[in-house]
Amino acid sequence: MFTAKAYRATRLVVMPEWQGAGVGTAFLNEVMQYHLDGHGRCNREYYTFFHTSHPQLCGYLRHSDKWEQTGAMLYGSNKKRSGESIIKTGKKGGITGCGYGGHFRAVQSFKYLGK
Questions:
Q1: CA angle 95, 77, 63 (to 5 degrees)
Q2: Residue 31, domain member (yes or no)
Q3: Residue 65 has pLDDT above 90, yes or no
């Protein structure tokens, strides 16, 4: 997202036996600070925006002084347009019907503010 002068992160996966121990959030905070300090791609000191739908992670980010919630969407957008886009960019004949829009998926976005 260099046109927006920002980094973007969208997934954080932690093995079930480590969930809830703070491993994922500690890792996430360190990676975001690394980029904010200018050590990321192209050495630019940009903020990072993170999108997630995980309830506990959203709760942590919402209450952390290192993060600011910037948006929330409780459901997908245009299902027809989503399906057309997936079909267009997929392998020929590989995907015949789909679409992610219109279903319940509470995606929330956050901005890492730093230490």
A1: 115
A2: yes
A3: yes
Judge whether 90 lies within some domain: no
Check if the beta carbon of residue 47 is closer than 8 Å to that of residue 7: yes
Within a domain: 54? yes
Q: Which helix (H) or strand (E) holds 106?
A: strand 104-112
Sheet of strand 6-9, all strands in order from the earlier edge strand to the far edge: 6-9, 47-52, 104-112, 67-75
- In this structure, is residue 55 part of a structural domain? yes
Containing domain of residue 56, as a range?
2-72+107-112
pLDDT of residue 104: 55
The answer to whether 46 and 40 have CB atoms below 8 angstroms apart is yes
Over residues 59-71, mean pLDDT: 94
Question: Model confidence at 55, in pLDDT bands (50, 70, 90)?
Answer: confident
Distance CA 106, CA 38 (A): 31
Q: How many helices (H) and strands (E) does the chain have?
A: 3, 4
* 80-94 pLDDT per residue, tens: 766 676 677 666 666
Count of structural domains, the chain: 1
